[in-house]
Amino acid sequence: MSKSLLGFLQDRGVSAPAALLAGMVLLTACASVQAGSGPTTAEAVAFTRQAESDLARSSEYLNRADWVHSTYLNSDTDWLYAKALAENTTLAVRYAVECRGRQRGGHCCP
Question: How many structural domains compose the chain?
Fold first, then answer.
């Protein structure tokens, strides 16, 4: 039996809100695609690997900040979690926008 994508990501330490946000950003970026010249397969694979690596690192930091915030409720952990969430969102949007600029043949990246 196959596991849901959310379950897969949660097993790897990605919080449900972060997974949902990343999925929404990527779907939005791929929603209106125009055919045209795009990256080579090697460039697309390199871009995807870099994005996955950066987003995994950012997500891990966000999840740790979320845990600290949930465990120790005070203004400092509120700030820490809000900052981590904003940085993670900014990174996800940056990659989505860059992916949209790399579209080829109706597909986002590879």
Answer: 1
Is 71 inside a domain boundary?
A: yes
Q: Please indicate, yes or no, if residue 28 is contained in any of the structural domains.
A: no
E runs forming strands in 1-110:
none
Average pLDDT rounded to a whole number, residues 77-81: 97
Q: What φ, ψ does residue 104 adopt, rounded to 5°?
A: -150, 130
pLDDT at 39: 78
Q: Which residues share a beta bridge with 1?
A: none
Eight-state DSSP code of residue 55: H
Say how far apart CA 19 and CA 35 lie, in whole Å: 28
Residue 20 lies in a domain: no
